[in-house]
Amino acid sequence: MKKVFTIIFLFFTSVTFAQNVKMGKFSEEEIAIKQVSYEPDAGAVVLWEEGESQFFSDLLETTYLFRVKILTDAGKEHADVRVRYYLGDNKTENISSVKAQITNFNGDDAETIKLGKENIFDVDLGDGLREMRITFPNVQVGSILEYTYKKADKNLTFLDGWTFQNSIPTLGSQYQIKMIPNLDYKMITQGYNLINNAEISNEYGMYKWTLRNLFSLKEEPFMKNYRDYIERIEFQLSQYQTNTDNMGLQWKDMLNTWELLGDELISTYREKGFYRNNPIEKELMDTDISGSTQMEIAEKAYYYVRDNFTAEGEDFIYADQQINQLLKTRIGSPQELSLLLMGILKSQGISCDPILIGSKGNGRTNIVPFPFLTQFDEILLRTELDGKIQYLDLSDKDAPFGYVDLDKHVLAGLYLVQGKSAIIPLEFKHNSNKVFYSEVNLEGSDLVMSNTLRHYYYEGLDWNKSVSSLEKQKEPLEKLFSQNSETTVIKDVEVENSLIEKNYVSTNFKIVLESAGDQDMIVFNPIKYSSFSKNPFTQEYRIFPVDFEYAFTETSNVNIKIPEGYELDDYPEETVMTIEGNSIVFSYSAKPMNGVLVIGAKMMVKNPLISAAQYADLKYLMESVASKLNEPVVLKKKANP
């Protein structure tokens, strides 16, 4: 990864900034820049941003300064600035000393307009939230926007710190904080550049980090959880000094142990009644969840909750309502339904406890090794059924027993057991593969491909959602497939959902190339509807890793019966492709055997997370795979049959 970034940096725009940037004072490079070399389509660019934090009595005050240049008409949308903060009843956060100005350039002349109250105002969003807004007037391509403000924060337990990236490219981002002797903080950093390429200084308790030439934050193909990789730094209070009457200054710990943290959360679940048997036993009086094995009992309990209760609201770690209220309304949040399922299983003598996880997209790639709850945002259940560990989740009402939402497929979680809570590794086993099988024959003058497409586990769950959506809209199932040409017809689509029984969805359908036999040559693509028949990676560079979410295999098997009177004129050659480390392997074979051309293709994604350093190799591989999958088979009429 380091090599790739080094190469890219050679082409970055070089902009020089003084150590103390002053509003209205610009370098020649800032005035001249019209395009970001490493992101030329950017509509605007952060020329410089900085934050400086220091403690005053019982609050942290941070001074912010931002300098943004508009590069295109589309970039003018960045002339509206919004900064949200929590005022609450006690002025937990407060913004003051707001100043803003815009500078436009006409040749060698620069005109600066300082903004007044009509362009700087505060909006009450309700529930203690407020928003400081700045609207810059007379914005032009080439305008430089500047604004500064101070934010006071009374919450000293968790410090916001600094995020070094923005929705537009950032040429320079700097944060510094002055620590004080009586407060001891744990520093939490995240991001490749912050760890490997930051300019860092530490003098007399003043810590400073500077990053340059950062890409904009945006979603990329196969990376919906890019927020987990943002360059940022934050702080958590570990201990503080307090003056006692008898012993003078003493350090007091702020961080609990994982055991105490777990006990605190379990106590909140107990208060809501989720560890009580009485209400659950009354609920189950007229319900049969018996079984000859623990697995059978757990499955019945799962489907009972899934099918008789409605999940509403966001998935989180706390229960808002009492269990009696949940049983009465039969409506609850996903976590409340999970806790109800836990209670049912416990009432049947089955071991079952919650696990707190920081889901994908919550902002962290890994659990921070300090016991605080803010890094967790969802729960799942861990149970032992007939001697085997099983994870349960009720986030998706369409998911069968044993399916855990993919955003919860993380490496570790906080296992909540009274007096024994601890971080444990998590592993989710499934074979989310896709298999395509086809028999190709000439029927009359039509070439008919009789196909079976089978989607397993999470592939099947997604496919079934697409099927259900079409059925609800009363649309034909043929819309599951795209047609490649005017002469191609999709017909006889039948879907069998066996997710609960066999963990797959099977789809039978036919592809008909009408009147193909009327031609001297029949040219067709034998492998239809592969996920990789078109390369999804078209961008020149990659900011974040590629995340396929899980390991899987996509297999295609095609038998082409050579029609009477025809011969093979051309067909794809055999090949095997991979990238360094063999995290992705593609193979293709084609062999004529007794009047039948047997074609096989297999894409194996062994490691679902591919680093940005391997993006160039991955892109080339996928281009080659797409090209191979689109190579045709050519059947030619014999000259003298």
From TrEMBL:
Keywords: Signal. The keyword Signal applies. Residues 61-214 form the DUF3857 domain. Residues 1-18 form the signal peptide. InterPro entries: DUF3857. This is DUF3857 domain-containing protein. It comes from Algoriphagus iocasae. The lineage of its organism: Bacteria, Pseudomonadati, Bacteroidota, Cytophagia, Cytophagales.
